[in-house]
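Obj.: predict assembly geometry.
Materials: sequence records (below).
Method: joint structure prediction, all chains together.
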Amino acid sequence: MNDFTSSHLVQIYAAHSVAFSVCLLIFLRTDISRNIIYWIIANLLGTLGFVVLYFRGDEINFYTFVLPNALNFFGGVFRALAVMRPMTRRTVTRPDSLFLLSSIAVFMLLAVPQFADYRLVFVLVSAMLVAISAAIAVIRNPLWAGSSGQKWLLAFLAIAITGFIWRLSRAYPFGPYSTFIGQSAEQYAGLVVLLVVSFFLQIGFMLLIADRLRRTMQMTARRAARANERSRQLVQRRQAAEKLASERLRMLNVLTHEVRQPLNNAQAALQSVLTEIEPEHIQRDKLWKAASRAQSVLDDITLALSNSIVGAMVVQRKQDPALRECEVLAIAELSRTDCPREQAGRIAIDTSEDAIFLAVDPILLRLALRNLLHNAIKFSPPDSLVKMKVEPDVDRLGVSFQVTNQVAAALDLDKISLPADSGPSKWPLDGKHLGLFVVSEVARVHHGQLNVKQSDEQHVTVELFIPK
Amino acid sequence: MSAGFPTSACIIDDDVDFVNFLSEYLQSRGCQARGFHSAEDLMASGEIDRFEFFIVDLMLPGIDGVDLISLIRARTNAGILVISGRMGPDAFNSVLAAGADMFINKPIRFDQVYHSMVSIMRRVGDIRPENASWLFDEAGEMLIAPGGDCARLSPLETAMLAALRARQGEPLTRVELAEAAGISPGADYRNLDAAMFRLRRKIERDTRQPSPIRTVHGVGYQLSAPLETGAATGGKRP
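Observations (raw structure tokens):
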């Protein structure tokens, strides 16, 4: 009965070994790894070993003891290699490598005839060393870290080692009962334990491989997500760069448009000057007017250039400007004298203070006030008064710059309506209202406001308010 | 140096035409102007102490304008006007920190140079301080400007300034300042902001200098200049 049962156990061993090998071959389709190949080789060797054991003759010789045990032992060696990190010359001193090499050395002692009585001892000790090597490898190999299969493998390797120790106590001297397959119940029980341990080791290894595959897939997914994110950022950067280039092109277009016409005018004015200064033509009044006109045009060019450059600077500035306390009446006076000479006389600065200090960027404030004055001059009747009132505002806790001018009869308030909003996307594409756009940007970066109101039918006031 | 228009000025700019035209203009206004085309030329002349006013370009060959301003300020209390094509906020802040009185970006007309010089002379004329610190007399409820002008403070203003002083230049939130000064802040700290606005205006009017208090937007206030404590005698530095 025992022979019959042992025969079935061997068949079951071979069957489970083949079944798990087939599963591993399926894994190999997606994960061609050294670990799986070694484990399949181990299964093949183990199965062959058991088959040879089963068909052994009565006599104990090389084919009935050494060969099957060698097949089983090297099957174990390949299992250890399957869970171990690659062994190289440099890593040969690792504990798992040392145990594995020691096991081979011990197994080789089978070849020494003088130690014939210790044959089973050598087989068991070498098997134990292989199991210990595999256990260390399972613990130390980072590939298996955190895998549930790690615990399974360790648990059943521990059971196998315990079984080997138990068997070791009866391994000397060597006799017919010292083989796994035989008539005794002890041999039968040993075979069952070996089969059960092998079964769960197979499951443990499958878990290791499955967990590694899962981690690999997760890592691949994360890498893909990162690659997608990088790709998205690159697209965004490219779009931002294109937008910036487009903005710069628009600014350049505006600049070109705004400057070309005044340059033509300046050429015309200078032509008049040259004509007038010919000795036979000199007329002082005409010369003065022509020269003034030339300077006025140059002032307009300067303003257009400043608006474009400073406007672009403000729009692209990522952070608020570094503000410093400045005396703003001096800045107001500067902006007044920035205006064409024949127009500056129309501008009166009205204040009750000797000095007003405010944290501003003086370059921006000067340009903003210059634009307010430029608009006031442009949209008011010639020779009418333009008033710039600069006063601390105790209600709103800041300083108010109000530019009031008489409106020309035909003036529509819409012509001086303020930009609805500010910011880079609001850059006036056609150059119209560029001055007011710059003023609104200056108000924005100073946390201030730009307001327009028509006090009566004839006067309009544009106010830049900056909080203190 | 006396208030009014300076009688002598030094122009340091590597633009030869600009220096010549501006020199002629200033001389027509009664100011003896002399031009140098680099900082090294000026240093070699040994005449720094002779001028009442300096007009400096920032982009000079060799020693740059900011370093030159520091060198001039270490030697003299003369007015310093910077005229430069550089427009970045860094340029503006660095020249004022180095000791310049005003920064104007090019292009500029000569009458604007004149007005700026007058403005600087009027403001700092003969009161340029030897000591750059403000003096806060908490017991006497007074604040003395570096130039020696005195602003008399109310108990509330004294408490606010004392709270700012205790923070040693770090920003003080509106909540902290209201608590320290015993102000009922209201929902939007309007009372506190109004009191601070009045205090700064008072300091500026009485001392003719920017107040040593700066608004930190979205946070509160902080001191922007060194503030020493001590007792003032008769509204003056001891």
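Conclusions so far: Residues 2-229 of chain A form one domain.
To do: check interface contacts against the pulldown list.
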